[in-house]
Amino acid sequence: MDGLDDLDTRLLVDLLRDHRDPRKSLGQHYLVDDQVIDRTMEIPGEFYEQPSRDSHILEVGPGPGSLTLALLRSHAKVTAIEIDEESVAHLERVFGSREKPLIIQEGDAVKENWPAGITHVISNLPYQISSPIIERITRYNESDGIKLAIILVQEEFAHRMAMSTPPYDIGPLGLNLWLDFDVFLDRKVSPSSFSPAPRVNSRLVVMKPVNREEASGIDKRLFRMVTKHCFANRRRKLRTLLSKPPSRISRINGWHRDRWEKASSEILSTDSTRLASDWADMRPENLDPLDWLTIVSELSSK
What we know:
This protein is an alpha/beta fold. Helix content is 37%, strand content 16%. The protein has helices spanning 9-17, 34-47, 66-73, 85-95, 130-143, 155-162, 172-178, 220-231, 238-242, 257-269, 289-300; strands spanning 30-31, 56-60, 77-82, 102-106, 120-124, 148-154, 181-189, 194-195, 202-209.
């Protein structure tokens, strides 16, 4: 039917493990649960439409190719970026002789250039590169635009992405994602779904790009720097945190220490109609995304 009928998830994993065991240094936990893979492939249709020949999917860290197989069966073009040379050789052995729209790119997906025209990012991410890959997805979406990202990450990390249980999960990760995406938690994935099994649960997370009118015109670099600066000492009050400039404030065009001190002094001494009267005596986790937009907007106006 699709030229891939002789392959299945377990076979792909066994074929790679015949050559080498997964490398702990690369966080290799191979996905072996077909139900999780099936659910991953169902998600796009619930937000837009199923991937098709017009789609270009980026997969980071394909490993044995268990998810790659499902992506190819959607008839989409797939670019798979893999840092492990043995996994690259395995993917080329398995898929190289088949007439499939698959590009296997050896390299570090955190540093390598991503191809143009990506419509989806669908990946089982090694835990240790989850943050930098999400940063890459965000930057790519800002410049080129994507339809959807579906990533499998550690469950605790997923909750911080979605800020699902405030105030505990409120932080720079979720706040900065909120600027550009609606983030949805999908299926919980147990350690038994992987080989070898990790020690923690995982979660499928959906990132849907969104244009937030309330964030229009906001200096996103300043927003990211301010939130990171404040949450670095999240038990302190905003008044204390904002009285000192971020250590790298001069890296943002138009900003320097003197401007920060003047701007922060003004907003801390002036009542804002858009913030609670006692906001400066709150801790970072007690503010919602709109509050942070207001703070950054008022800093920028000074």
